[in-house]
Specification:
The protein is α/β, with parallel strands linked by helices and 285 residues long. Helix content is 21%, strand content 26%.
């Protein structure tokens, strides 16, 4: 089985951005997230490949192609991977090699993981991200970016033993677990449940029309109209996950939680929010 952990960047290149989007990103009136992605990928010179595999809608790929072209990207097309064999085709691998950015659409993340996971293309996507290619995913496309993917689960604020189901993701980061449509679908409980299984990772709950732009140094910046909930379990001193039965509430103590609005920044490596306070000028006596 191919590795699912992030590839290492080499000295002659910098890791590309990783951009999970919470879904339902604004596409017409004020598409700041998609504009920022195109700008990162080179603006007019951007060469973007859209992967709409998660969606069952026939026009998802072409719709995003039109969107990115309207935002100024000169070369955009979509690659609808319908089978694992498609993820081994030399022509598809060569097309990805030309990209400055890859965009994975929403839909069903299990379609993504069962078709792309463990294939040469999954390994290639990790390699490209390690060498300055930016990878964005919205909704299901965001969920599959980390090593551990939330495949499904129940909504609600309280973690329980069976609140979440996990499966392997693409492995572009092993430091995060990502949940999407976060505030709109009340998903704090299932993110906490996922972290109870794996307290090493940091949880990102991303609202709709909101993205976390994660730079090569592991610093994220929030872009969009909603918020990003950061759940840090690194200091958890007790979890009851191994002692309870199905349906019972998980006890987790000493969990840190941060809420970041647009412009908010967080250092994933140090697990610290980066707050720039604006000081009011002192009044004259």
């Amino acid at each position: 089985m191919l590795k699912r952990r992030p590839a290492r960047s080499t000295g002659d290149s910098e890791r590309g951005y990783l951009i999970p989007i919470g879904g339902a990103e604004e596409k017409e009136t004020n598409p700041v997230i998609l504009e920022r992605f195109v700008e990162l990928c080179g603006g007019h010179a951007a060469n973007i490949v859209v992967i709409p595999t998660a969606s069952r809608l026939s026009d998802t790929g072409s719709a995003y192609v039109e969107l990115f072209e309207d935002l100024g990207a000169s070369h955009v097309d979509f690659m609808h991977l319908r089978s694992r064999a498609d993820c081994e085709k030399i022509s598809n691998m060569k097309r990805l090699d030309e990209a400055t950015g890859i965009f994975i659409t929403g839909g069903n993340q299990l379609r993504l993981s069962t078709i792309i996971g463990g294939t040469p293309m999954a390994d290639q996507i990790r390699h490209l991200n390690a060498h300055d290619v930016h990878i964005a995913g919205t909704s299901a496309g965001a969920a599959i970016l980390p090593e551990h993917m939330i495949a499904g689960g129940e909504n609600g604020p309280t973690p329980t033993l069976d609140k979440v189901s996990l499966s392997p993701g693409l492995g572009l980061t092993n430091s995060l677990v990502i949940d999407q449509h976060f505030r709109e679908r009340d998903r704090l409980g299932r993110l906490l449940s996922a972290l109870a299984y794996n307290p090493y990772a940091c949880g990102l709950g991303i609202d709709e029309d909101t993205a976390a732009f994660i730079d090569p140094n592991g610093v994220l910046e929030v872009v969009g109209s909603g918020g990003v909930t950061v759940v840090d379990p690194s200091n958890v001193d007790y979890s009851s996950i191994a002692e309870i039965r199905r349906g019972e509430v998980v006890t987790l103590t000493n969990v840190r939680l941060h809420i970041l609005a647009e412009g908010g920044r967080f250092d994933i490596k140090s697990r610290r929010p980066l707050i720039e306070q604006v000081l009011e000028p002192e009044e004259e006596a």
